[in-house]
Amino acid sequence: MVYVINLMDDIDRLLLSPRKAMYIKFIYESPDTTKTTEIATYFGVDPSTVTKTLMELTSMGLLSHEPYRATSLTGKGVIYAEYLVRRHRILGLVLTHYGLTPEEACEEAARFENSVSKVVIDSMCRSMGHPMMGVCGRISHDPCCCNGPEKRQEKGKSQISAR
Ligand SMILES: [Zn+2]
Ligand SMILES: [Zn+2]
Questions:
Q1: How far is the CA of 151 from the centre of ligand 2 (A)?
Q2: DSSP H helix total and E strand total for the chain
Q3: What distance in Å separates the CA atoms of residue 163 and residue 160, rounded to the nearest whole number?
Q4: Could you give the number of structural domains in the chain?
Q5: CA 2 to centroid of ligand 1, rounded, Å
Q6: How many beta carbons lie within 10 A of that of residue 30, not counting itself?
Q7: Three-class SS state of 134
Q8: What is the helix, strand, coil percentage profile of the chain, to 5?
Q9: What are phi and psi of 126, to 5 degrees?
């Protein structure tokens, strides 16, 4: 648990470039489609570019990657991926509160989500009562936001959104 909490405190410092974040999300959401060539086809880039990025992510401890083999997320990588998905969906939800349709909210959140820090995402998540559904899918709450000190104090209160 100490390891998990340290990672989450670290997440802004580890902040990934938008492209790296997209790779992490893609591998998280398509665990069966993670060969270098498949990732290259999906993003329309050269396989050598993919290999370079995958090696960088591997050296950050987020991926376990061997050339020409399938790539998978490490435990740390999964936590990071879940954070990225939550960040996108929390921001999407906030935008729907200001009149955007779910489709618009999804698209607009993707334009700026990479510059929003975890502190802000956690505050939004808390203020909305840790919603379970976002505009484009379920939201899983990482140990730092939902099982952190604050949540433990709130134990007993229902955290399930009515929607
Ligand atoms: Zn979305
Ligand atoms: Zn939360």
A1: 9
A2: 9, 4
A3: 9
A4: 2
A5: 31
A6: 12
A7: strand
A8: 60, 5, 35
A9: -65, -45
